[in-house]
């Protein structure tokens, strides 16, 4: 797929407001600001393409988070990298419980289980986490929310 | 299910309390086998002795996962005997300190206690360890549970504990010593079991890499495992040697040193594409790389997270350190669903990890792999690095 060039806007802002706890994945781009406030994060930049955009935030603990949303403002994917995991409850929002249930199901499965990477592919939710001490990375998306023509591989 | 504990009558190793064993004091025999759950795949297990500090009140525990991808000794509280009452670490106002340590698969929650840790002939005296479990501190704070799911049972861990011998001397570093939002929130002060709040934790009080506290042989570890034939093996035996270039048995020799970037990773190039998020980790039970679409390897239907090509597939990738050291690595991908159910070692276990390479335990088969601790000097340079 041929991508149009990115339009990059550099924005830096710090929050001093009280935290709120809105959903992110599946939520509206307006909640990205709520995440930023909750995480006390700095917004590093916004990247726009014709089909989707992402905000890039960095938390005070050094975790970089990207939140991907379509032209209608719906957040269809999130990705992160840093020395620690992000607040998954904050990032996955209403999908967090599905994530927990899928994790629990993984543990009781009798077949050989992959250890050291976490893979959840639960129909409406895909999560992948990798890493080692002080070096975590991962992404999550809702396949049903992917905008037309957007590949999940953009979520990194 | 009662977890296996006693190691003293294992075939092939002597373990009397006062005589010198035939093995060198910095070498531990380790094994890839089914482990305490009898179903582990590519998990390397060690036996560790934990004592109440300064006493001979000790317990020897087998089935501890050897994990170069994490830092610190963690043991399931369900495995510890009643008589091993380890001192509880306390913080401000004498409140117990309890830790929430993140892993890729979830987190471990449980109190920080101190112990003398004895492995082979080495001793780490009076070091903080984590006792995993919710028995004493049943209320996991939301800020901890927001990371994923709690790994608190034998089924969760697939081991009696984790021996984290990774790249750092302690499990948090500077971040946990800070107040405010820059503190990643690993350590909690729990004046009552239901009222845990994030606290600052000096580095010396954090859960320690036991190796960093050995009197000598304290700059890293060496893991040596034999090759595993294709098709797998029921079990394999190898060695975990303490120290890098500190004794005649742990010299780097011809091993090449790979230094790391700011995320403690190095790079792997595969089919002409460079993937900077690459690392070596004995606690991962496969070589996890990229995805089915990119590799052409189909996902398994049973063994979730692994690849299941119909025939054994030969692959090649180039690892490259920040220092420019590079090496071509030949590896195989095989069908994990079809491996013999009684086998616990499989070199051709691969699986998905979009965007990077996690060189797990199969990478160690047929190699001698060195893991050097941050800030510790070795003949190959100051850690952190991997070498092989």
Polypeptide structure, described:
The complex is a heterodimer of chains A (156) and B (388). Chain A is of the alpha+beta class and 156 residues long. Helix content of chain A is 18%, strand content 33%. Chain A has one domain. Chain A starts with 6 loop residues before the first strand and ends in a 15-residue tail after the last strand. Chain B folds into two domains: 187 residues, Cathepsin D, subunit A, domain 1, CATH 2.40.70; 137 residues. Chain B contains three helices and 24 strands. Chain B has a seven-stranded mixed β-sheet. A six-stranded mixed beta barrel of chain B has the order 2-3-8-4-7-6. Chains A and B meet through helix 2, helix 3, strand 7 and strand 8 of A and helix 1 and strand 20 of B.
Average pLDDT of chain B, rounded to a whole number, is: 93
Number of domains of chain A: 1
Uncertain ranges of chain B: 1-23
Specify the helix fraction band of chain A: 10-25%
Most extensive chain-chain interface: A-B, 44 and 60 residues
Strand content of chain A: 25-35%
Taken as a percent bin, the fraction of beta residues of chain B is 35-45%
Distance between the termini of chain B: 39 Å
Q: What is the number of helical segments of chain A per DSSP (H or I, 4+ residues)?
A: 3
Counted beta strands of chain B? 24
Sequence of strands across the biggest β-sheet of chain B? 18-17-14-15-20-16-19
One letter per element, helices H and strands E, the order of chain B comes to EEEEEEEHHEEEEEEEEEHEEEEEEEE
Q: Sheet with the most strands of chain B?
A: 7 strands, mixed
- Detail the poorly predicted runs of chain A: 1-5, 10-23
Shape of chain B: globular
Distinct helical segment count of chain B: 3
The strand count of chain A comes to 8
Shape annotation of chain A: globular
| CATH class assignment of the largest domain in chain B | Mainly Beta
